[in-house]
Amino acid sequence: MFQRARESSKRWNSRLFCSVIRCHRHLEDEGDWFYSSEWWGTDSGSDHGHTVLRSTSSKGNGVVSVVAYPSSRPDAVQWTGMEKWLRQRYGKIQAEDKHNAHFRILGYQWRVLRFNDITRQSTVKIMAAYRNSDPTSVFFMQQPDILAVPYLKSMVSVGLTTIASCNYDLMGAIYGGKPMHILCIGHGGGSLPLFLASKIPGAIVHSIEIDPLVISASVQAMGFPAFSMVEPSGERVLPHPEMIDEVLWKGTHERLFLYESDAEKFILNSTTLYDLVFIDAYDGEDIFPRKLWDPQSPFLEALKRCLHPQHGTVVVNLHSDADFLGQDGNAPSSAVGKYVSRVCQAYKEVLGWSGSGFHVEDSGLGFVVSVPWLCNSSLVVCRGGFGLVDGVKQTRDLVLEKLVSKSCEVEGMLKLPFSCLEYIKRAFVMVY
């Protein structure tokens, strides 16, 4: 979940100027902030979007809706390439039925998940298409390589760069030779777990969502793989994937597990040792539940048990203690105020210690960075000793230097369409 900052008129004019400059160059990342006006429509324009789902939550999230907005990319001339890809995938899976392997793309849309018509929970891009032999067979495919909101890029950048800095074999996971266990708490539209599973073939991603209506919205209206849904028993909701899901997601949806569960209950009963955990959980009132950061809570103690003792890394999306931006596009230094500091300290104190002793190595590493354009911060707590040299804690500058250096490797390994460096260096503050 994200909070958009209130900007001064001076800052707004600066953004307009930046947009004019950037529109003249090719933007590889379709989730770039340049397209943010497409995600949500314009306040003064006539495009208020089209509501494709609207219902009342039974889990305290109020009115849950999904609103669609047109997308300018990819251009229609590029659709034939995707139609060819669909035809080839279908031919491999249904070799005996190749004459029905022709597809037609209807277009692309942004789809935004909202709570109570105000809180923007998640933004994804979907493709709509159908098979020529059955024009009524319209299906949606969420675009797995697009993270549309800056805080998600921040979480991915700091999380993957940090765990790679702990000597974790990220390349092995990317090549699929090493399993990487990832937990996402707070599913939303599902763009984060889908991005991770798509980019990292060795990733086994568990995504936790307390609200069945949000799960339904993600799958039915936002193109998340239906085969990922899991019963409380651990069995798949669908015993076998539909044919079109195999065409779209074979090789990916087998490693996605979407659970309907309370986060605390899930982690208390979990036996999985997670390498990487992402937490982005806000309710209908836009509040991060206290039980997910209270140092005395069963949740943090259970998460500590489920976090890998050598390199386990946790990333938490937080609202900054400010609702405006500085002139450089960062939240001001006061963004690490009392509330954020309390949450940071709780995670660092409980999770940073691996429990293997009382040595300085057990204290782990914690830091927080601000998110560009939004009043959000990304908190990172990791185990492992990359913040140490000969048992002595490194300074902020040395830790940041190593993260910056490693970020270039992560970008290259994953072929990311955005720069990790942009998100790692923003208002970097160590948590002691």
TrEMBL record:
User: What is the designated name of this protein?
Assistant: S-adenosyl-L-methionine-dependent methyltransferase
Q: Which organism encodes this protein?
A: Macleaya cordata
Q: Which family, according to UniProt?
A: Belongs to the methyltransferase superfamily.
> Key word Transferase present in the record?
yes
Instruction: Tell me the superkingdom of the source.
Output: Eukaryota
- What PANTHER family does the annotation carry? OS04G0510700 PROTEIN, SAM-DEPENDENT METHYLTRANSFERASE SUPERFAMILY PROTEIN
Protein keywords? Methyltransferase, Transferase
Q: What SUPFAM superfamilies does this protein map onto?
A: S-adenosyl-L-methionine-dependent methyltransferases
- What's a BP term from Gene Ontology annotated to this protein? methylation
Gene3D superfamilies per the UniProt record, alphabetical: Vaccinia Virus protein VP39
List the Gene Ontology MF annotations in alphabetical order.
Answer: methyltransferase activity
